[in-house]
Prior knowledge:
The protein is an alpha/beta fold. It is 43% helix and 13% strand.
Amino acid sequence: xxxxxxxxxxxxxxxxxxxxxxxxxxxxxxxxxxxxxxxxxxxxxxxxxxxxxxxxxxxxxxxxxxxxxxxxxxxxxxxxxxxxxxxxxxxxxxxxxxxxxxxxxxxxxxxxxxxxxxxxxxxxxxxxxxxxxxxxxxxxxxxxxxxxxxxxxxxxxxxxxxxxxxxxxxxxxxxxxxxxxxxxxxxxxxxxxxxxxxxxxxxxxxxxxxxxxxxxxxxxxxxxxxxxxxxxxxxxxxxxxxxxxxxxxxxxxxxxxxxxxxxxxxxxxxxxxxxxxxxxxxxxxxxxxxxxxxxxxxxxxxxxxxxxxxxxxxxxxxxxxxxxxxxxxxxxxxxxxxxxxxxxxxxxxxxxxxxxxxxxxxxxxxxxxxxxxxxxxxxxxxxxxxxxxxxxxxxxxxxxxxxxxxxxxxxxxxxxxxxxxxxxxxxxxxxxxxxxxxxxxx
Length: 442
């Protein structure tokens, strides 16, 4: 079996032994009736990402443990967000459990109360295993799962920290050092950019909406939030323009042809083929980059925390959770699935396999007892752990966050075509101001 399917040290986490997960033993140890909903069927809606692949690899264990069958409907990111909104606004969602991207739709879901408040389920010993251990979720994870009205409508499952990934072979060939701050990042990208050889110095998301967190990630290095606590917009000031100018210089001047149409899928593929020297993106995609079966650079990829800006070093952070549809007729079965999917076993597997940073603190402790298979895996774990200490939300916590991403994403895409950053941000800010005032007031 692939190492990512196992934890190779039982001392680190007794419940995950090298022989695999034993559902009978797990039920006996907990003394909890995991089979109280046996025979039921769950529909789970999920955005395409590595964390769902981790669950799908082990889905048979959940079925053996509970007797509940699970069908995953996995949809690419952009289409998935639209699907959720359409289904929830219809009043008749076709699924029982939904994956929620906190940075994209948390406030929207909270405003509509589209997901069930799970606090009563947590407090019910008949449906919550004794070893559920809510305090094991980090304070950051608990905050992400908590709505403004204090409702907890998801269990957090994955955090993605934007990190720097670099092709060591390309760096070594030209004697370039790994970047640690914004100036060295741009200098390295320029030095390694060699379009005649089919190599770009940098690759990052260029597609509208998907590209906006690239810009806000640079902006936070200046110590600036795009939307302040009282709704003030810092999106066309000096720091915002500097961050956009850096993005333009990296992705337009040092990026691959056609990058304006790249989401993370295309960026990841480009980097894995050895066609880019530097890649800035979420830490959740490392499993494939480290897999020699699909990645050309698995044996010489490096990872480090997001470079430091002029003011400070922060790790742009995304978070995701799982929630239950209030209209579901399988609420308890759905709650059992949430407990399993975000439990200590699966969270540890997720981290050690490179499928994403876990929401549970115990997963980090468990990983300390595991010997990484490669230097790349060791560096990835170190980069994620370091990012956890400097984590900061990649996007503003507002209802209109998708409109924010669309409007500023269009401006950034125009910059990749050569438009002036200051002019584009001024126009975008004027456009977004009305949207923000309307949505926050409503």
